[in-house]
Amino acid sequence: MNVREKIQNFESLTLIKEAAFSKNSIGRKIREEDDDIRTCYMLDRDRIIQSKSFRRLKHKTQVYIKTFGDHYRTRLTHTLEVSQVARNIGAGIGLNENLIEAIALGHDLGHVAFAHNGEEVLNEYLEDGFRHNEQSVRVVTKLENNGQGLNLTEEVINGILNHSGLGSVKDIITLEGIVVKFSDKMAYLNHDIDDSIRAGLLSKEEIPREIVKVFGDTSNERLNVLIKDFIKKSNDNLNNGVKEIGLSPEISEAMTELRQFMFKNIYLGDTLKVERNKAKFVLNQLIKHFEENPYEMPDIYVSIAKNEGLKRGVADYVAGMSDDYCLSLFNKIFIPKFVID
């Protein structure tokens, strides 16, 4: 018996029957030999961590554009916090933590530079629109590994595709994927409040009192309430034969209200409007430039432009850029250089 088989046996002893067991995975689009040490979900996790797209997350904005403070979240630290929250929930319910981790680490690989501002630009640019969750799937199935993709399991791809929003979970094929979907919102609402207070754009006193009564007044309190409620409600359902996991109605309603508050006052509020417009200007100029000069793009995007259309190639290239690379490229292309005689 090799190490992978021992891990799979351990799964059968420790996970609940509703969990996603690695030995029962739907599998990959391109069949591969099993690894001697890692389960299929562990292998997926490793491929995501070792990808270029994952490394670029460290220079992609979470909410605050080009913040120089060391303690503001980036898309990478957000991803790690989602993984932390999701794995804690998974352990509390008895789900497959390796699958949870793989989905969580890959869920935002398709996010554009400058947070949702970049997504809005590409959504207007492409005729069929642009959604970062779909782009994340495109990254892992097509763009990574020099155009070969990462050949991940269907369970991980499905979880990545369906992580966005707070809507229906009917298209998510594993409970682990549902955990990541909720954990994403728990993580970003919590840490975006923290960052907003740090930036002086929000005070604790501005958060509606009815929400504070439910979640408490600190980062730790908010996460504890959300995680513990999700575990308790989910375990109650599963123990009563109901294969549904999620938050209790009271906590779910409070989280929705908090999300609406943050969208109104921070994400889409007037406070960051000037910076959002600057970011959109930079991206629109780069898009226009590469539409006019497609052969300046790397070969993989030139190939996509030929086979799938110019806009698709340009969108894939721009979507993969980090904030720093966008600004550096913008300066290189559009900012005059000083010449000294």
UniProtKB/TrEMBL annotation:
<feature type="domain" description="HD">
    <location>
        <begin position="75"/>
        <end position="189"/>
    </location>
</feature>
<dbReference type="Pfam" id="PF13286">
    <property type="entry name" value="HD_assoc"/>
</dbReference>
<dbReference type="GO" id="GO:0008832">
    <property type="term" value="F:dGTPase activity"/>
</dbReference>
<dbReference type="InterPro" id="IPR051094">
    <property type="entry name" value="Diverse_Catalytic_Enzymes"/>
</dbReference>
<protein>
    <submittedName>
        <fullName>DGTPase</fullName>
        <ecNumber>3.1.5.1</ecNumber>
    </submittedName>
</protein>
<dbReference type="Pfam" id="PF01966">
    <property type="entry name" value="HD"/>
</dbReference>
<dbReference type="InterPro" id="IPR006674">
    <property type="entry name" value="HD_domain"/>
</dbReference>
<dbReference type="InterPro" id="IPR003607">
    <property type="entry name" value="HD/PDEase_dom"/>
</dbReference>
<dbReference type="InterPro" id="IPR026875">
    <property type="entry name" value="PHydrolase_assoc_dom"/>
</dbReference>
<keyword id="KW-0378">Hydrolase</keyword>
